[in-house]
């Protein structure tokens, strides 16, 4: 029949599957379509909350701090209401993204601390939490996360926005029992040896670990089952020995200011390794103490990626090639460059030649990032083809990407600068404020009066009546 509502006639399981692809805020809005849809959203097993959904399209339209606080409070109230309405419904995936937090919560009083225990009781398979607290350094990540037996994937990134902070959230739960965990992503934490020991003992089938902009206060990483390890923009003041016989994929970013080295051992299963040499253009000092032997433990790989970013990255590559191992299994080598450094220079060609002479099984070299309209680079690329052609090695040029993008690398460098400066007790600038022209919600400092006001308001919210009558609830859903 013409005009028939066929979608509403579908089974609940199909409707909830469709709604699982929407942000939870949009899924909840479907309750107003008809009586048929009123409670469908409550059975969706995917919950996705993003504070940006509660902002206007143009963030610059916020003219007063009170407007931002009001929007944030609505965001918090919405999550409280959704979790309360679902009661014991199971959750398969839970995602929370909360950037630019402007209210300071009392110690141990952050809303996330009351949400996570509720979610954990609903046995999620995937948990993703990305937070950007304002100025408070609070214990945000609750213990129940590390004893949730249903979890298979965890992503935790808590980036404190206090420019002066020298403290970094330590992950040190009393117990780690995650028997089904396979993937773990941690960002902006201080990782200590005690936590790593608990992690690998309590996660018997853990396969993938990614550490982003963390302070690594450890001396070794050793795990029997790990297959993939990514270390991006992390700081460590002492050598870290990585010994993982089962590891197949490795990705490491090495900063020019890194004061300690990685030592790779027992990598008998390693297939692919990606090494990014990142020059921090804003750093005047260069340490280069990551060791020329960084490639020694990677000699068994079949694919090697080398990414250079910044004008001093080429010197970093020369440093690690002082002692070049023999790559008996290396078949494919890839080069990529960003931000003032190109692999198509005479020095880089000499370094490629050095690697080739130590790679008897090499079949192909791919160069990324060369611009076709640069005659000098085209000539150098042809020189590289001629040189490697003598070895029977195919040389290709590709406009794609190994690592990601220049913006991604710049963000990584920026994060490392924040980490490095906070560890060295150095503020971002002489006034201790954000960059010039930066909006207050993007990192500028707030006054002590505003901070106290935020704390008072937070206490009032905690002490207030959390019950919502039916009329108020209907208004909230709308």
TrEMBL record:
Stretches assigned to the F-box/LRR-repeat protein 15/At3g58940/PEG3-like LRR domain: 114-253
CDD domains to which the protein is assigned, alphabetical: F-box_AtFBL13-like
Comp. bias regions, Acidic residues: 430-439, 447-478
Chain intervals for the UniProt region annotation (Disordered): 430-478
Domain F-box: 7-45
InterPro entries documented for this protein: F-box-like_dom_sf, F-box_AtFBL13-like, F-box_dom, F-box_SCFL_complex_component, LRR_dom_sf, LRR_FXL15/At3g58940/PEG3-like
Protein name: F-box domain-containing protein
The organism of origin for this protein: Rhynchospora pubera
